[in-house]
């Protein structure tokens, strides 16, 4: 069993060249993201990555060292009930979707300085696309966060 | 020619051995500093926000150690492990207790409050540990393996975020222990080691 990164995928050459051309890498990643995440993302692999890399702190159902992820898509950042977030994330104004999650997972410290996740475990765009695909499938259902566009407090605003 | 080469090779070997020993002495010096009441290097130079972000990271790590200790205690008390496996589980448990002491010491030294462990009943009820699903010795080992991998990866993930670099060294040493445990558990389960290089973190 692989410890984290799993099997090789056809994107490797592309990724390698993106790494070489660091300067334009970000741009390339941004342009490719919709393609990677919609067409080719591998949610099954994403689940493995989630268990191995995120599972120490997160689960879908329960708060732990990190907040629960139930209902994640469309949540305002930092609003799952009962979790003690950093001020930085609570006040960030972020709403979670494919794009914001991709930026967060690439480097939370860059996106939200002062956040308390401070984890860099998904520097590879394919890993992030797979993780996000899995999160999208696994986090459906009622969360306990504030939905975007609602002014309600935590608990109640759980409907999608 | 060869007359001079042979002794110089010997001297090289001696020299690198000496510098290796010196480096080892430095490492244990840092460990002593962490455990023995000497302030961590560089703390004074950091501002409150940086120190408190380091403390937050250490407290997340401490929470994982508390949970690991509970899991090993539950596993050891399950009656499912044979004697040799129980001995290894107890050894790993003691390593995690050591980690807990190191982290609590560091957090206090930095002016933070170490997070408390949950109760055993809370750990038993947690969906993450899923203790009620444990039926065999292999289930115990698989839980421990999953927690060790998660902890190793979590430490790798937070390592670049420490503002006090001496904490990165502490994290590195913790990661080495978790990886040692993960490897032993993986072999005990008869599973292959990872084929890809750099398979931890990412």
From TrEMBL, chain A:
InterPro entries: Cyt_c-like_dom, Cyt_c-like_dom_sf, Cyt_c_1A/1B. Gene3D superfamilies: Cytochrome c-like domain. Residues 41-139 form the Cytochrome c domain. SUPFAM superfamilies: Cytochrome c. GO terms for molecular function: electron transfer activity; heme binding; metal ion binding. The keyword Electron transport applies. Coiled coil: none annotated. The keyword Heme applies. It holds the Pfam family Cytochrom_C. Keywords: Electron transport, Heme, Iron, Metal-binding, Transport. This is Cytochrome c. It comes from Solimonas aquatica. The lineage of its organism: Bacteria, Pseudomonadati, Pseudomonadota, Gammaproteobacteria, Nevskiales.
TrEMBL record, chain B:
Signal peptide: none annotated. InterPro entries: Ferritin-like (IPR012347), Ferritin-like_SF (IPR009078), TAT_signal (IPR006311). CDD domains: Ferritin_like. Pfam families: Ferritin_2 (PF13668). This is Ferritin-like domain-containing protein. It comes from Solimonas aquatica.
């Amino acid at each position: 069993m692989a410890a984290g990164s799993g099997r090789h995928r056809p994107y490797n050459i592309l990724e390698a060249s993106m790494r070489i051309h660091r300067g334009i890498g970000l741009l390339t990643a941004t342009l490719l993201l919709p393609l990677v995440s919609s067409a080719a993302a591998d949610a099954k692999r994403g689940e493995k990555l989630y268990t191995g890399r995120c599972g120490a702190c997160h689960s879908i159902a329960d708060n732990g060292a990190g907040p629960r992820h139930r209902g994640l898509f469309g949540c305002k950042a930092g609003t799952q009930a009962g979790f003690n977030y950093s001020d930085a994330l609570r006040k960030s104004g972020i709403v979670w979707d494919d794009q914001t999650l991709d930026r967060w997972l690439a480097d939370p410290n860059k996106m939200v300085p002062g956040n308390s996740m401070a984890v860099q475990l998904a520097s590879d765009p394919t890993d992030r696309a797979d993780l996000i695909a899995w999160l999208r499938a696994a986090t459906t259902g009622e969360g306990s966060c504030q939905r975007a566009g609602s002014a309600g407090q935590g608990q109640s605003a759980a409907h999608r | 020619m060869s007359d001079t080469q042979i002794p110089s090779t010997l001297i090289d070997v001696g020299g690198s051995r000496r510098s290796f020993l010196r480096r080892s002495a430095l490492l244990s010096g840092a460990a002593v500093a962490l455990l023995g009441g000497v302030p961590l290097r560089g703390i004074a130079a950091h501002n409150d926000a940086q120190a408190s972000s380091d403390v937050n990271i250490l407290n997340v790590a401490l929470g994982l150690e508390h949970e690991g200790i509970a899991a090993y205690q539950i596993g050891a008390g399950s009656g499912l492990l044979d004697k040799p496996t129980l001995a290894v589980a107890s050894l790993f448990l003691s390593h995690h207790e050591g980690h807990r002491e190191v982290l609590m010491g560091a957090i206090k030294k930095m002016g933070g409050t170490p997070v408390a462990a949950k109760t055993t009943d809370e750990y038993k009820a947690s969906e993450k540990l899923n203790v009620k699903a444990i039926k065999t010795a292999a289930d115990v080992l698989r839980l421990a393996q999953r927690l060790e991998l998660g902890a190793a990866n979590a430490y790798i993930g937070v390592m670049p975020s420490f503002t006090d670099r001496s904490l990165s060294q502490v994290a590195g040493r913790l990661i080495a222990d978790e990886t040692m445990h993960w490897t032993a558990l993986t072999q005990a389960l008869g599973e292959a080691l990872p084929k890809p290089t750099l398979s931890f973190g990412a």
